[in-house]
Design goal:
Blueprint (H helix, E strand, L loop, with lengths): L1 H28 L21 E2 L4 E3 L8 H15 L2 H5 L2 E6 L3 H9 L6 E8 L5 E8 L5 E13 L2 E8 L6
Parallel strand pairs: 3-7
Antiparallel strand pairs: 1-2, 2-4, 4-5, 5-6, 6-7
Length: about 170
């Protein structure tokens, strides 16, 4: 049984390495206007086709601290997937104009487990991002939220510095 377990672990490691290698090659070969499904920071999938271009970023991936769009993805992933206000706050500056982790947790508690999300991020000329979050809930309802998000560099990483509702237009 021990030998069989070792074989399974060894096979899993080899398969994982091959998949990772394939994902890296797919990412390098992806056209500039469309992201590949191997872009883990971007994510994507049915109902949230991944896009990464200068005009728009769309996905539901884990994000990163590499860019403004990726910091926004990281915050939203923490909210919908990790379901953690503390993890979401980790994507922000300590002094960010953003709710506390406890307040974020209270918001998360209102979202049913199993809710899927898709984030569309459009850079604005003033340096902020127009962010549209679409929720697909387990009861087959959907909700859409819009935010204006500011980002900045802190200790060499990109973090969210402010989240505001969009201004009303007349």
């Amino acid at each position: 049984m021990l030998v069989g377990s070792a074989a399974v672990v060894g096979t899993a490691a080899v398969v994982g390495g091959v998949v990772l290698s394939l994902e890296i090659r797919m990412q390098q070969a992806a056209p500039a206007t469309m992201a590949s499904t191997a872009d883990l920071a971007l994510g994507g999938g049915p109902g949230c086709e991944p896009v990464r271009s200068p005009e728009v970023v769309r996905g539901n991936g884990i994000g990163s601290t590499g860019s403004g769009a990726d910091a926004i993805l990281a915050f939203q992933h923490a909210y919908y997937v990790d379901r953690s206000g503390a993890v979401a706050r980790a994507a922000t500056a300590p002094d960010a104009w953003v709710s506390t982790a406890q307040t974020i947790d209270a918001g998360i508690a209102t979202v049913p487990v199993g809710t899927h999300h898709c984030v569309q991020i459009t850079p604005l000329p003033d340096g902020r991002f127009d962010v549209v979050i679409t929720e697909s809930r387990p009861d087959h309802t959907s909700r859409t939220y819009r935010q204006l998000v500011s980002v900045g560099l802190r200790d060499g990483t990109t973090v969210i510095t402010r989240i505001d509702p969009p201004r009303a237009t007349r």
